[in-house]
From TrEMBL:
<keyword id="KW-0472">Membrane</keyword>
<keyword id="KW-0812">Transmembrane</keyword>
<feature type="transmembrane region" description="Helical">
    <location>
        <begin position="144"/>
        <end position="161"/>
    </location>
</feature>
<protein>
    <submittedName>
        <fullName>Uncharacterized protein</fullName>
    </submittedName>
</protein>
<keyword id="KW-1133">Transmembrane helix</keyword>
Length: 291
């Protein structure tokens, strides 16, 4: 699951780039054909909403720089085929999209009740553009996929970062022992720190449980390859510190597979503890028998 969270932002970024390019190159706005201004053509229109855009050669217009000018008194008449209900047309101005000396801008939306061949007549005056026409098409589906990909990248990145922080471990060699870190509400210490400077005490195993996890399943990178599939066990250990009453600590740490059959309630263990907080900051040293 940890690897899935890591892949989410990667998939989102790749998708955003791909769908962004497809959206920029798509000709969906004129998918059903174009009619010159002035002019008349017969186009086959599908049932549903049809996007109508003003399209012309306008090399001086750039994306988001300014809105392309529209013809004065733009007229549009859509005549339905015999027996079909007349379409409804409403004004719906959109943004300007430009490229290769051409630009287009949504101006209207027509609702087509029945698919068929429609006669379309256009007219307009004071038109400053070259080769003006009305384009009939549909919304760019790639734009929706683009925003979904962006959302996936942002969401996946946030979840992945949070998961990685929660699963952060201090990777250390620790003299050939499995990597583990111990916190307990204080700054983390590695198994290497505890084993090298912690107080050695005798422990008695009071309970143990296989968590079903390994370093591989948690997406962690051990200092040695053989630790990758060591099983993580939840251990409850009675720690017998000198000159004080025994305390019970709990920890989850990898256990060498050769030691798993030897786990038993009452088994004595060699442990290294932080005397300031032994219940939370200790580690079992399976490589050394108790003194």
């Amino acid at each position: 699951m940890h690897k899935v969270w890591i892949l989410l932002p990667v998939v989102g970024v790749v998708g955003a780039i791909a769908f962004g390019l497809l959206a920029a190159l798509s000709d969906d706005y004129k998918a059903y054909g174009e009619v010159p201004i002035p002019g008349s053509e017969r186009l086959h229109l599908p049932e549903g909403d049809v996007m109508i855009s003003f399209h012309a050669i306008m090399p001086d217009v750039q994306n988001d720089e300014k809105q392309m000018p529209l013809p004065q008194n733009l007229e549009l008449v859509i005549t339905a085929p015999s027996g079909a209900e007349q379409p409804t047309v409403s004004e719906d101005l959109g943004s300007t999209f430009a490229g290769d000396s051409e630009a287009h801008r949504q101006v209207k939306v027509a609702h087509i009740f029945v698919a068929g061949d429609y006669t379309i007549t256009t007219n307009g005056t004071d038109n400053p553009s070259v080769s003006p026409r009305l384009s009939f098409g549909h919304s760019n589906h790639y734009k929706l996929l683009l925003w979904i990909s962006i959302g996936l990248a942002v969401f996946g990145g946030a979840i992945s970062t949070r998961a990685m922080k929660r699963r952060a471990h201090t990777a250390s060699d620790a003299g050939g022992r499995p990597d583990v870190s111990v916190a307990g509400g204080r700054p983390e210490v590695s198994v290497a720190d505890l084993l090298s400077s912690g107080q050695r005490v005798r422990g008695v195993l009071r309970a143990f449980r296989d968590t079903g996890a390994t370093m591989r399943s948690q997406g962690l990178t051990p200092s040695r390859q053989e630790f990758l599939d060591y099983p993580y066990y939840a251990l409850k250990v009675e720690l017998r510190l000198p000159d004080r009453a025994p305390v019970t600590g709990r920890i989850q740490q990898p256990v060498p597979p050769t030691e798993v059959p030897n786990l038993a309630v009452g088994r004595e263990l060699n442990c290294a503890v932080d005397p300031a907080d032994p219940k939370q900051r200790f580690v079992v040293d399976f490589s050394t028998p108790p003194a």
